[in-house]
Design a protein that fits this description.
This protein is α+β, with helices and mostly antiparallel strands. The chain contains seven helices and eight strands; from the N terminus they run βααααααβββαββββ. Helices cover 22% and strands 17% of the residues. The protein has a six-stranded mixed beta barrel with strand order 3-7-4-6-5-8. A two-stranded antiparallel sheet has the order 1-2. The structure holds zinc ion. Zinc ion binds next to loops.
């Protein structure tokens, strides 16, 4: 039996400055831009950690770099939970003194908390008003988000202001997801747009290749070893991040159907590896392509291009026996 699967190759030459963990990332163009500009620094020489959460402290540190603010006047802390030695301390004080941030209480800034999408909108709106450029003519038509009711009152005007500039937009289902956290990659996209750079999603080119590794089982002789019981979740291009994209977190393109894509926990991914074929009772054969966070006993099944029915899909939430196929 011969199986056709997709092997990925990048569509553009990788620049010398690229981080190893961002070479095939959907936000690669923005990541390259914000690091070339010196707005972001990597989490190490080799890594950008695109899928890690953007914290409030990080976000303000980047905003101060984008502004080019002279922080030497702000080398003290304005909040009890920010130490003057923290790398973002001067930036937070600068932002506070310029009415760009107000803190999470009178005394606290909560610098290690992830920054939410609606918080980003308010910070950027305050920032634009600080620059006196908040009355930029609206270029895009404002549409009310389906989850408008979830937007906090204090953020509502700012959310629609950012929508009108195209800096933060909704997902393909028309939702804004105001209280969702933001990854470093998503923040890189926002800061690129703030600088006038509206990059397309980085795409990887597919070439069809015959796989001959021993990971593809001969189903006639295949043996199945019970791995355990796993709760399934479903995702499609419509509810993926970025919405409309088939790219998984690792940058590979997900495939639906028999031998299609599943993502497993980091632990399972480390022990089984990409390309391992699983047999999921009630679903069929699926191939490990990527990992999700590290939620044990959960397997994410890719269901296709949409329209999104992931929340009502009969497979979603189901607990199934899962076998490793060899
Ligand atoms: Zn979906």
């Amino acid at each position: 039996m011969v199986l056709m699967v997709f092997i990925l190759a990048s569509s553009a030459a990788v620049s010398a400055k690229s981080f190893a963990d961002s070479e095939n990332h959907w936000a690669k163009y923005s990541i390259d831009f914000v690091t070339d500009e010196g707005y972001f620094v990597g989490t190490s020489d080799q890594t950008f950690s695109p899928n890690e959460k953007m914290t409030r402290g990080m976000f303000i540190a980047v905003l101060a770099r984008v502004n080019g603010a002279d922080l030497s006047y702000f080398n003290y802390s304005a909040f009890s939970d920010v130490r003057a030695t923290d790398y973002y301390s001067s930036a937070v004080t600068w932002a506070y003194q310029n009415d760009i941030v107000a803190g999470t209480s009178k005394e606290t800034f909560s610098p290690s908390q992830p920054v939410t999408r609606e918080q980003i909108c308010l910070i950027l709106s305050n920032y634009l008003h600080h620059l006196n450029s908040g009355d930029v003519a609206d270029e895009r038509e404002n549409k009310t988000f389906y989850d408008d009711y979830k937007i906090s009152k204090w953020a509502r005007d700012a959310v629609y202001e950012m929508q009108s500039y195209g800096y933060l937009v909704g997902d393909s289902n028309g939702c804004f997801r105001p209280t969702d956290n933001t990854t470093r990659a998503e923040a890189a996209v926002v800061f690129s747009r703030l600088s006038g750079q509206f990059f397309e999603t980085y795409k990887v080119v597919q070439t069809e290749t015959t796989v001959t590794t021993d990971k593809v089982p001969n189903l006639d002789k295949a043996s199945k070893t019970l791995l355990g019981s796993y709760r399934l979740t479903c995702y499609c291009a419509g509810c993926n991040t970025p919405s409309g994209s088939r790219a998984t977190a690792c940058g590979a393109l997900a495939t639906a159907g028999e031998f299609g894509t599943v993502a497993v926990s980091s632990d399972l991914y480390a022990s089984l590896g990409a390309g391992t074929v699983l047999y999921i009772e009630g679903v069929g054969y699926r191939t490990i392509q990527d990992k999700h966070g590290n939620t044990a006993n959960v397997i994410d099944v890719y269901t296709g291009d949409g329209p999104c029915t992931c929340w009502t899909n009969a497979m979603s939430g189901k607990i199934c026996n899962v076998y490793v196929v060899k």
